[in-house]
Structures are given as structure tokens and as C-alpha cells.
Amino acid sequence: MFMKKILATIIAIFCAVYSYAQEHLAFKGVPIDGTLSSYIAKMSAKGFVSVSSQNGVAILKGNFAAHKSCTIWVATMQNKNLVSRIAVVFPDHSQWQYLYGDYSELKELLTVKYGKPTNCIEEFPTQTGNNQESTQDITHHVATPRLKSYLKEDINLFAEEASEGLSDIYGGMGGVQKEGNSHQGYSNTTADSDKIHEVMFGRCKFGVLFLTTNGKIQLSIEKNNEYENGFVKLLYIDKINNDIVRQDILDDL
Fold it and tell me: What's the CA gap between 78 and 82, in Å, rounded?
């Protein structure tokens, strides 16, 4: 009986230590966790202005990373009021030099903070069949196709091959390529006018992926389907809450 109590105590301590060691991915210094309303309140305290909140997704406006008038999308998962991912949409640009300028600056700063990207693809593929959009859809409460696209991961960029060293850690978060894998082949399109043209037609594949033990961060150049320009998107996906929802799905199977 005494040994059982000791064993139970040891297990409880181990579980407590393990839980404490688990940390959420942070956005603006705030862990990506909690209910949507509580997270909106925390973002409001950081200076963002709440625009709307419906169907498990909140839209906020504000300045981010020295960029003015950014749009922030905060999303929960289906059937669970638990914030798990955040997308930052930077202002649109109709000229490549400014669009790429935002992308390259943010890429450099993210590398300083998170280290060398796990994957980097920067190209303008022109072969037939490479122009289709392909995204990984982890279901959210979303109201419109445009809103939904902001919160998706681009599997053309980030899910081509599983990483041997990280596949166990990130098994529920999409494919991962091996460390240092990159493909920078955009010399086939030289003029800035040609590059922004490729963005408009969905033939620009520029993105980097950073994997951490707390989640993943994706930076990419996207086309604006409503206007003839493009924008930079920064997507944060928390591992802990993403895995919680994934486990709920597995339990249903």
C-alpha cells in the first residue's frame, strides 16, 4: 500500500513536470491559447482593434512588426472554442519591389528569432500543371472562401517530404522537409513587371517554414483574388492546441 502511494506520487510529479514543460507558440508575446473572446481581449490590450467576430474567427486591425494597417485573423477549431492559429495579412502591393521587400525583411527577422528555416522555396514555376493552388485544410469555423484561405497552410510549399528528425514531433501538423532544404530558382523571371504578373496568376511560389517545439510559422507571398496585387501572409500554428483537436478527430475514428 505504501509503495503504491509512492508510485502514484512519482507519476503525479512526472505528469506535472511534463505539462509544465509544454509551452504554447506565442504571438505578440501572448501564448496562442484560450477562448476566442479572451484572446481578443489580450490582443486589444496590445493595441489591435477588433473588427468582427463570428463563426469562431475574429478579425482585428493594427500595426505589426513595424508594418501599419495589418489584418489579423484569429481562429478556433471546429466544435471547440480554442484558439489554435493566427494569420497576419500585410498590406497589398501592386509592385514587386515592395511586395518582395516586405517578404525578405520579415524572412530575415524571423531567421534571427527562430534560426535557419526548415524549408524555403522561392520560384516562379512555368511548367504546365504547376499552377494549381493546393492548400491543407484543417477545418475551421469560417464564413467565406477568402477568409478560409488566409488560415490554410500551403502544402505546395511545405508538405512535400516528411523530415526524419522532426516527423514524430510534428506528425499532426503536416509534412516537414529536412533541415536546410531550399529551392531558390526564380532567375527565369527577371523583370519586376513579370514577377508581379506571375503573382497575379498564382505562379509565384515564395515561402519559408520555421518549425519549433511549440508550433510552426509560415511566411509566404500570396495573390489577392479581388484585386490585381499581392500581399505577404504570416501564419502561426500552435502545436499543443492543434494536437488536441487532432486527437479529438482520431477518437472519433
Answer: 9
Q: Is residue 14 part of a domain?
A: no
Domain housing 88: 23-252
Provide the pLDDT for residue 20.
47
Number of domains the chain is built from: 1
CA distances from 34 to 30, 31, 71, 77, 150 (A): 10, 9, 20, 12, 21
Q: How far apart are CA 220 and CA 200, in angstroms?
A: 14
Count Cα atoms within 13 angstroms, Cβ side, for 114: 25
Q: How many CB atoms lie within 10 A of CB 116?
A: 11
The number of C-alpha atoms within 13 Å of 70 and in the hemisphere containing its C-beta is 22
User: What is the C-alpha to C-alpha distance for residues 71 and 171, in angstroms, rounded to an integer?
Assistant: 30
Q: Tell me if 143 is assigned to some domain.
A: yes
Cβ partners under 8 Å of residue 71, min gap 6: 59, 60, 61, 88, 89
Query: What is the rounded CA–CA span in Å between residue 113 and residue 119?
Result: 16
181: Cα within 13 Å, side-chain hemisphere: 18
Tell me which H or E stretch contains 13. Answer: helix 2-21
Any idea which residue has 523571371 for its cell?
189
Q: What pairs with residue 64 in β-bridges?
A: 67
pLDDT at 102: 97
Whether residue 10 is contained in a domain is answered as: no
Q: What is the DSSP letter of 74?
A: E
98-146, pLDDT tens digit by residue?
999 999 999 999 999 999 999 999 998 764 444 444 333 333 333 444 4
